[in-house]
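Render this sequence as a predicted structure.
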Amino acid sequence: MTSNISPDALKLLQALPNLATLQSTLLDAAKSQDLSPETLAKIFKDIGASPEKLRSILNLWLVPQFRPSFVPAPNYTVSGLQDVDFLSSTEPPPIQLPYRMFDIGTGNLVNWPAIGARGQYCMLSHRWKGSELLLGDVYRARSLDLERTKEAIRKGESGGGSGRKDDVQLVLEQCVIDIEAQEGAVKDLYPGERFCLGELLDKRLRTKQIENALEWARNTADKTRAEVRFGEMEREVFEELIGKAGKEVDAASPSGGGNQVSGVVEELRKKLEGAEAELGRATKAFQDAQEDVDFFHSHNRLRDALDDMVSRLEKWKSAIKLQKVIQEADRIFRTKLFQRRDKCYLWTDTVCIDKTNAGELSESLSLMGDWYENAEFCLVQLDTKTSYFDAAVDWRLFEQERGREPTPLAPEFVRVGQSAITGFEDILASKPEWSTRAWTLQELVMSKTTFYLNSEWMPLGRPIESLGYLYHLIPFIKLYTERDTSNPHFSSQSLDEKSLSQLLSAHEKSLPIELRGVREATEKTHTTPLGKGALNASISEKARDEAARVNTAQQIIMLLDALGVKLPKDTALETAASDMARAVYLAAADIAAGGLGSGKPNLLDRLRERLNGLPVSDQSKPRKELETDALHAINFLLKCLVDETLPLILEDREYVASFGNIDQFSQWQTGKLRTGFAAQTVLAAAGRRDATKATDRAYALMGILGVRFPTFHAEGYPMALARLLDQVLITHNDVSVFNWTGMAMGSTIRGRSLYPSSQVAFGSQDDRGRQYNLLLSSQVQNKMDDVMKTYHEVVDILRQAIDTVKDKRQRDLPYGWIERVIKLVSDSGFLELKVELKSVRKVVGYILQHCVKAVPSDDEKVVEEKEKATPTTSKTLSFPSLPSPSLSLPSPSLSLPSPSLSLPTFGMGGKKTDDDAKKGSKFSPFGKKSSFGFGKTAEPVPEVKPPAPAPAPMTAPAPTPPPATPSQPSWVSLNDAVTSHLDYITLPPSERTTPAPHLPSELDSITLGTSSVTKSRATAHHDPSLDPESTICPNPIIVNNSGIEGLFDIQRVIVTFIDHDRLKARIAKAVTPKDRISGWCSVSTGFARVVVSFSCEKRLLEQEVAAVEGVESRVLGEQYVDKGERRGAKLLSDVVVSQLSPGAGKEKEKEDAEVEDKVGEELDKVTDEERLVSRMIEFIQEEKLHLVAGEWVLVRFSGVPGAKWFLCHLELGSAPGQYYGHRIAAGEIDFANATPEPGLVKAWQTYMERKKRKMCYVLKGYLKSRQSAKEGEEKLAFGMKTVGEATKRIDSLGFGLGASSAAAQTNEKEDDEATLLSKDDSDDEEVSAFDRLLDQGRVAARAFGDYTVLAAVEKFFELRADHLDQRLNSTVLKRTPKRLQTAVESINDGRMDGFLPSMFHSATRVHMF
């Protein structure tokens, strides 16, 4: 604690007299820095018990007195030495390179190629078609060529001047020799007289295809037939479920679910019809070719020889492919933007791996992904689709190569012939088989850039490929340049081709050889397909435009090279910014250092002058400034390079992803990621690909998933996949490997129930459970949407009616119509209202359009009030305006306006003072304002203005004589017809025995616009490309032979088997505990349920069946309600139905209120469905997890946003607090498509009904208010009429009239007594007249009192209606059980997030077997 006292604290101490004695003590303690607790306690004790003093001293003493100073943050956008992170770091050890490659320059297969500073390599990616060349074929060709050479030397036939042939030529030559030898063998085996190998080969290929097609058609038909049978069984179950789901929303609606479920079965039947038709065609083709089939069955050696001929033709074609690919790779290295090396190599998986060496094969399969990732480029050969007649076409080509006349191709082969892809833009339409193979996934994704060939080995180029090794660097350069936000050159225009040429004119000779002549090789004819915005352009025009931009980019690259910028050969997302900063900084530092004779400073000066006219740099400037100038210029060139090329690269990668079948790799399309994807994304993409060997489907993903393990093809595909997923968990902790679905996809390997048996489980395979859930949810949701739409329309109608009735300025409204509309809406369900809404709209629309009068504006009101304020000349007593009584109610306070009345003043009292005028009567309950003007003096009381009226006040009209011929409202003539129609449609449907009366023709053209908005159901959006970080588990995962252990979230659910009896029968018939039994079940979270298919062992299903029976008897079948719940419901209904007592003598209103209370009481009761859902939720919210053991639960990994819920059998472990689990293979559990629980739907429907009735109650309250107002106006008019009659009577009796003064009244008292005595004869008549005048005054006073009471009642009903209107949702929601309120609100708002599991036990350690 600081001991320094601020000046403010000193001033405060000096200003406090009662602290003078403490001043020296406090200062001494502060100066001595002895502020021990004892010292402070003594000081505070001396201060006393004044919190204000203590607080002031502490605030001034302890608040810091320093003032912070703010320093602007330094600019880190310019690259410098601080950005170079890896200058002193050691290079990582090189990866294991391939054992052998083809030397592109010599065409020979070499061992241990010189990759690095002296050499570079590319990879071949292709689709295997039949027998491909192998390493043994190369060795065999070498050996046989050596033998032939030796034999020729022995015979003296050596032509040594020809030189040694390369390996590719030797293989081609040997393939030709083998084919000719096999031709002779076939000819020797042919039993006929006329031999034609082409025709014989066609016949063999045709019969082989017919036999294979017949077998495939039979298997397909059998499989489809079984699917139809299962589909019909499922239809029976789901038709009943969907029918019930429809009735749960509205009991009067038909089930209507059969058509949707039948649609699923109809699709299967159509599929079966197609399979049977294909089987019929295959059977007929087999019968037609029976003779040829029998021929080859009887001549099996000839058949085998022909099959061997097909294999030799395929190897000959593979040798040609190898030769053409090497030539194309050599062209790309020479003409594209790749650095020149002494050696260039090509690697192909067919020849460069010794498949007879198990160790080399295993190592090559593990490292193949790294080899593709580090290669300069990947050359892709897009061959035609595999066909049974490929060998027939190859034989004709072979005959042409040998100079023979080719045999005419069979007619059926010509009809189905395939053509090669002609351009890059045509690849997607051709759907190449290359994009469906397992190994090609990582070959495409992990390669830096790709070049393409068609089946005739012609390049399929596009302009952007001319960027060479910079193709994959451009997106990373963008990451670097976007950080430079203070570059002064970025506001300049990009450099054009002319400016670049001028800048490079003096440096072209010094450029590297790879940059010279590269522009002439740019593709200018083919490119990616046209976009939507370029429909009028052509492919060639688009290609030329892109070629121009690529040429500009190449010039920028040349300029960067002339400035000494050496871009990194490769980089990654994590190191891209640092790698680029290092390259740019080193170049800028070299320029600033001088570089005498290099010309770089001069080039930089000319570049800066070209950009924005900056003068030549002063070489005497500090080196730091020279470096900054160079950095800005180089960054500007990099930005220009990115602007020219990045849009083309992104478009190109998007198109490659389309035909390469990797659309879900969105991060790959941006060019920033080649590895490190979420495992689920990779596995889902691989699930759509095939491999010749099943285990290769797992081995082919090691590179892209970043894992390594030895391969062993004999282990089988399930074990290979399990080992792959084990390594993903161990290496990355990526739990997306568990996001799979499918009841038939569970792994059979012990301890790996969490894994699937196939990669297909990660994709969107045909899951009928998903379709049925969509049907169930849509069946319920459509009806709920109808209810919601009807509700919004009803609410809109009631809202407009309320606004009309609330407006007190509207008169002569047909209140009888509105009352009948209220009764119809209140007593009818939403289904009935949907039918009658048309009539209701017309009636309410007529009221709004023909009965509601326009309200005068404020200016018109002012003029009208001035006209009314004009003084009259009639003789009247001056009587103040009636005061506005102010009701002092507990809440709210009411201020009622009163009419302005001009009444005579009764001069019967003394003089009334101003205080008396302000003071109200002590008996008045309405406030302290002036009462009637009875006083002790006869002074005239000045006219008092009425208080300001409330919004939309009800003003009583002046007592003017009624018109001679009063006009009736327009609706009066239509009243009978409209009333009879409304009375009829209000009747129950069973009582409508006669046709409905028609509405008047005046209402036919009435339309009432509604402003209701139908809330759409929110559905979950699934991103096909998961964020890798969202699937990494932060908790440790233990993987061993016995299973997988981790921390899981566990959600208890209620499982219901759809066909319970059939499952029990299958359990009874099972032979072993491990027999797998499949079926359908519903999984409920209490709020919603999904229907899933499942498959599990008999022992697990048997335990769950017993658990389900217990839950059904204890929770689902329970019909009683405990006392506490019954008492709570009663208390709630008592509060809900309490209403204002009816007015005095209103027996009919009292009876109606009692009926309404009974209806409201029934509606506010907690329904059986709501009790059932509450019990279900209470069951699911079990806090003790050990009581949940033995049941099926929902489980997911804790703390992982991308983890999905799956079904699991939970068991108690061998130790306390330990749990075991076994995953149940099931269909997709997606609560975004869940169906709300029937009880929840009923609760929501009750909630909607309560809201509707409450709206009717609000409108009825406003009607009561208007009725009270109408009665009050009648009372007011009667009182005013009575006062008028009394005024006339007073005039007839000769009282002083008009605005008489106090002096005139005094003079009347001083009249001659003789004059008064002379009127003795008329005293009796005057007394009688005065009594009648008093009676009329009493009647008028009673009328005014009744008006005041009715005005208060009117205001009460109006305020109560306003209160209910403002709190409609919260008032109604209180009637719903608390456990259901959130879910009901979610349904009402169209949100399904309230259905997701949210009451789980988190972070529970479970060992999964």
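Summary. The longest helix spans residues 1238-1292. The chain has a mean pLDDT of 76.
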